[in-house]
Structure formats: C-alpha cells, structure tokens
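note to self: dont lose this again. the chain is below, predicted strucutre after it. 178 aa total, dont forget to put it in the shared folder this time
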Amino acid sequence: MPALSSRKVAALLQTARTGTTTVQRGRAFEDFLCYAFGSVPGVAITHRDQLNTFHSEEIDVALWNDKKTGAFDFLPNLILLEAKNWSNAAGSAEVAWFDTKLRNRGLDFGIFVALNGITGDAADKTAAHQIIAASLREQRRLVVLAGTDVSTLRTTAALVMLIKTKLCELAVTGTLFP
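---
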C-alpha cells in the first residue's frame, strides 16, 4: 500500500487550519481528503463539490471504489465524503443532512470528516452521535473521522485500518468515538 507524502499532508493540513479565508481552508481540507483517499489502490475521485439536479444538495467528494484486495474491498463501490473544516465541532444538523443525502440516494455507507469532530457524547448517544445511532436502524453506516484521526495518517494502509476500526466501533457501540 502506498505511503502518503508527509510533506504534502502537512502542507494541506496547515493551510486547512490557517488559510486566510474559509474557502481556502475548506478547499485545502478537501484537497487533503482527496489526496489521502485517492491514494488508496482502486479508489478514484469522480466528483467534487457537485450539486444534484435540483440544486438542493451538494456532495463534497464522490469516490469510486474498485474494491482492490487489501484496500477498501470491504466497502461499497460508491462512497460519498462530507468534509467539515469548521472552527467548532460539527453538529447534529450537519450529520443529519449528510445522512439525508445518503438516504435520498439509496446509499448505505458514507464518511463524514470533521476537522474538529462532532458534537455530543458517544456513550450517551447525544447530539450528532444520536444521528449516527439512528442511521444504523435504517441500515446506513456513517463513519465519522475527526482531525485527530486523519492528521497522523502516513500510509494508505493506515487509512484502510482506520476505516475498519471505525466500522467495528460503530457495530459494537452503536456510534463512534472521534
């Protein structure tokens, strides 16, 4: 599995945290996610910042997954990513909106990446964690990655293992501990 360039990861995350505008910070965060996920064997970035036909929903990043052995072979072919580079934790409304986007498309899996995590308490399933737990009842799996999860990634193997770990946490606890 390929290594990620530590220089590129550091530069993109530095801009994501300290860029001069919110647009620059958001773009750098998406660029980082596209670089990391797009480096996984068999994964292609197919769309970025794409509105649906009705202009009512935007998808941050769409991935096509060829399910290469040893990579994301345990995930569906189509994966949507939602990127939140906010100064605070992302709330239940944002997680619920992403869950709605998945539901509207008939998808059962998505990845929500919030640089500063999500609101609520995982053990008590409050705030955004409640949305994650509720989506499980409808057989949708929402994996949440925080900045602390992704900022230390050095290889695509580590990214694959991170997603596997988060899926196990989701199945065992009914939510995630970002």
